[in-house]
Amino acid sequence: MSGISDAIYNVFGDYGDIGVMIGVFLIFLIDALIFPALPEVFFILGFDYNPTITYGVGLILMAVIAELVGIFSLYYIVKHIRIPSRISKIVEKYTDFLFVNDEKIFLVNRIAPMIPFAGAFIALVDRWDPKKCAVYIVIGCVLKYGIILLATNFFYEYFGGNTALKITIVFVLIIIAISMVASYMKKKKAGLEQ
Questions:
Q1: Fewer Cβ atoms within 10 Å of its own Cβ: the N or the C terminal residue of the chain?
Q2: DSSP class per residue in 38-87
Q3: pLDDT tens digits for range 15-30
Q4: Nearest Cα to 149, choosing from 75, 84, 55?
């Protein structure tokens, strides 16, 4: 784990706290806009750079801003390109199968990822209000990363630096694995996975 954190610190750490925050922002932006990038792990690595609650709150703010910028950039792109109606129908059918199929799915998505490329889905599902989606995205982001921040802070106080980092990363990877399994089982139950 220290190899990853050292690489991040080498790129962004020279610029201090702001540099690491920018690095976390970019990871969250990439995750929301292009491909899954395990932002939870990078959030923890960012917190490891300056393990204080104040800095952690700044990281949560960066995560929220980056997710909104990434998701709504993708939303804008999808809204302004020609998408075949067949794809829109597939997206509508997919969301109709979900247990929660309105904007609240973005809260559930924090626990069991069901909606990849959220911006594209928001653009293609006509019944969703983008403003409501943004509210649920912000609430979900603050809750998820707030809990991760509190757990990480607890581990730092109880175990100390390097051990706390390793325990927290393992903790988050287990949560990600459980989320992926829950998502797969939910999709399979709904007949979305073969």
A1: C
A2: -HHHHHHHHHHHS--HHHHHHHHHHHHHHHHHHHHHHHHHHHTS---HHH
A3: 788 888 988 898 899 9
A4: 55
